[in-house]
Structure to design on (232 residues):
């Protein structure tokens, strides 16, 4: 079993990040989801989780995972719809700033597996085992967790993006982020496929390779992944 470290997930709720795990992460622009809509969605999720716990399901962990998965898909669909949402990331200059921030910490704190930059949100797959493999003997005091990394990525890109927008000092990213740790290879393939094909699902392009701000590590492209719409 992997060691765990307690970190702050959204700045409000305690959350455990598994040391050295691979994570699927989503964060979005400030104002891209109305507060009341997001509150209603979270309330629906929490009620389902509580009901499931009370029923005493045989495979409680999986049932709760499926509830979180359904919540995320509904959450992400709202982002894809871009209703009344800022879409600053559609600006290539701003998307380049965000990409530079993501790549800045590659091979420093994580191995960058994949990312996509959508009009109002981003998806990342980051492998934090890089720090363990390059920190022998392992010293937990030198380990930089997901929360810290996301603060670095969002902080640097916020400053530069707001300079382009002329909004220096204002909010750019929403507080917090959504993350799920990757449990196995099957889960990893699913997270990678979801990340690179989000642009296809949102009908931004017909194939993920047509999108200039969707990227997959060449080492992972060697795997026999099934990419929808390949060859079009």
């Amino acid at each position: 079993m992997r060691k765990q470290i307690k970190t702050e997930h959204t700045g409000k709720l305690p959350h455990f990040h598994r040391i050295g795990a691979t994570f699927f992460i989503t964060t979005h622009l400030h104002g891209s989801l109305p507060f009341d809509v997001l509150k209603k969605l979270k309330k629906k999720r929490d009620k389902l989780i509580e009901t499931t716990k009370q029923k005493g399901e045989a495979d409680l962990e999986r049932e709760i995972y499926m509830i979180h998965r359904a919540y995320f898909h509904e959450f992400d669909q709202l982002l894809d719809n871009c209703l009344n949402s800022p879409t600053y990331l559609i600006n290539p200059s701003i998307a380049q700033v965000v990409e530079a921030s993501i790549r800045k910490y590659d091979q420093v704190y994580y191995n960058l597996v994949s990312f996509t930059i959508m009009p109002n949100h981003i998806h990342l797959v980051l492998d934090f085992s890089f720090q363990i493999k390059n920190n022998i003997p392992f010293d937990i005091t030198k380990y930089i967790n997901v929360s810290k990394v996301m603060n670095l990525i969002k902080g640097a890109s916020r400053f530069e993006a707001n300079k382009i927008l002329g909004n220096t000092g204002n909010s750019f990213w929403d507080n917090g982020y959504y993350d799920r740790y990757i449990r196995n290879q099957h889960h990893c393939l699913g997270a990678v496929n979801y990340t690179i094909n989000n642009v296809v699902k949102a009908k931004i392009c017909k194939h993920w390779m047509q999108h200039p701000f969707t990227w997959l590590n060449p080492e992972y492209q060697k795997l026999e992944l099934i990419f929808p719409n390949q060859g079009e």
User: Anything to note?
Assistant: Confidence is low (pLDDT under 50) at residues 1-14, 226-232. The longest helix spans residues 60-81. The chain is about 45% helix and 15% strand. The chain has one domain: 4-32+82-221.
